[in-house]
């Protein structure tokens, strides 16, 4: 089984990446490996539909990782009530064939003050558009949920881990290989 974790932030020192890394480490400890694609470290060009853009090595690698994935765990930052432009752009490269019958779990890094839900609703709508099986459960981690070392607080971590366990179980059940 191949699992893909996507960190959707273009920022350095990103909380989305911290969530994605916590997810990868939790899965790893439970014996499940997952690839982490960090859109800050591995940005993609702007989607323009051109064949030459698809042939760029990083785009080809992105398509390969997505096509091999049996499930996606997507972490988006909340920017102005929506997902990041970097994440939406990355998803625009992927059509329905990448997501059909694959479980997709969502999490969000928000700014505090009860943010996060709008970005998750926005992302949920887009994943529905590409035919992914979006889990009902989701997880918001806001900036107050991190300690000074960037670790997620013990109040929030179990929610994230429960979501990951459910997602990995469903992905395994539906995996082709
Ligand atoms: C351009 C921009 C827009 C933002 N808009 C919101 C918002 O609408 N709601 C919110 O809760 N936080 C907002 N924030 C705060 C971010 O959600 C917060 O900084 C979060 O950590 C971003 O994730 P990242 O660290 O992975 O980039 C915004 C931050 C930026 C840079």
Automatic annotation (TrEMBL):
So which domain of life are we looking at?
Answer: Bacteria
Q: Name one GO cellular component term.
A: cytosol
Q: Which GO terms describe its molecular function?
A: FMN binding; oxidoreductase activity
Residues in NADPH-dependent FMN reductase-like domain copies:
1-143
Q: Signal peptide span per the entry?
A: none
Q: Which InterPro entries match?
A: Flavoprotein-like_sf, FMN_Rdtase-like_dom, NAD(P)H-dep_reductase
Q: What Gene3D superfamilies is this protein classified in? A: 3.40.50.360
Family the UniProt entry places it in: Belongs to the azoreductase type 2 family.
Quote the protein name from its UniProt record. Azobenzene reductase
